[in-house]
From TrEMBL:
Residues 1-61 form the MADS-box domain. It is found in: Nucleus. The keyword Transcription regulation applies. One of its GO terms (molecular function) is protein dimerization activity. It comes from the Eukaryota. GO terms for cellular component: nucleus. Keywords: Coiled coil, DNA-binding, Nucleus, Transcription, Transcription regulation. The keyword DNA-binding applies. This is PREDICTED: agamous. Its main location: nucleus.
Length: 254
């Protein structure tokens, strides 16, 4: 006959409990050693009795196994945290995608498109939003225009001040250097002999010079039209001048 099935529960008898603990502890350590040898596994077993006595087994050293266990535990915790963070990021990403889709749809409706699925109340709200936005744009435009006008006024005042400063400087310079009313004499007034020589010796080449010379000598410009020299015309005019003077004298005597 086979052994009957033992109920797994705490053994009340202290002696029986101690005997069972010793037997099963030895069997557990033996199984751990066999597992390590047969499967080339790193096995460690730690057992504390009810009296606090320690029993242990390690196929590769207890410290090494515990260090490896701690590293794996930390890495598993980090992996769990990373997995949790990835899940949280994924949720946040989904929320952001939904918000982006809503905003994009709202923007399209603000442009007057895709309005088929809106009710009357939603259309009224959209119209109110558009009116408020248009009012804000107009106010901002007026503000910019006022600012530009103010800048133009400031620049105009600055230009007026600069012009006034320049005008004062010019007046100060005029006071320091007063202007003379006397005209600057010409070259011919300084050298009248050379003027006559140039006209007599070299001949008349410019009509303006001939006319000026003729008027200075009391001659008429008829010589220019006749093509006669001024000295010849002067000789012809001398008897006429004397006759005119005699006539005038006789009239005075009468």
């Amino acid at each position: 006959m086979g052994r009957g099935k033992i109920e797994i529960k705490r053994i009340e008898n202290a002696n029986s409990r101690q005997v069972t603990f010793s037997k099963r502890r030895a069997g557990l350590l033996k199984k751990a050693q066999e597992l390590a040898i047969l499967c080339d596994a790193e096995v460690a077993v730690i057992i504390f009795s009810n009296t606090g006595k320690l029993f242990e087994f390690s196929s590769a050293g207890m410290k090494r196994t515990l260090s490896r266990y701690n590293k794996c535990l930390d890495s598993s915790e980090d992996a769990a945290e990373e997995c949790k963070a990835e899940k949280q990021d994924s949720k946040e990403l989904d929320v952001l995608k939904d918000e982006f889709a809503k905003l994009q749809k709202k923007q399209v409706r603000l442009l007057g498109k895709d309005l088929t699925g809106l009710s009357l109340k939603e259309l009224q709200q959209l119209e109110q939003q558009l009116n408020e936005g248009l009012l804000s744009v107009k106010e901002r435009k007026e503000q910019l225009l006022v600012e530009q006008l103010e800048q133009s006024r400031v620049q105009e005042q600055r230009a007026i001040l600069e012009n006034e400063t320049l005008r004062r400087q010019v007046e100060e310079l005029r006071c320091l250097f007063p202007q003379t009313d006397r005209a600057v004499p010409s070259y011919l007034e300084y050298y009248p002999v050379e003027k006559e020589k140039s006209l007599v010796n070299h001949g008349v080449t410019s009509p303006d010079l001939v006319s000026n010379f003729a008027f200075e000598n009391g001659d008429s410009d008829i010589t220019l039209h006749l093509g006669l020299p001024s000295d010849v015309y002067g000789k012809r005019k001398a008897p006429e001048r004397e006759a005119h003077s005699n006539d005038s004298g006789s009239q005075l005597a009468l």
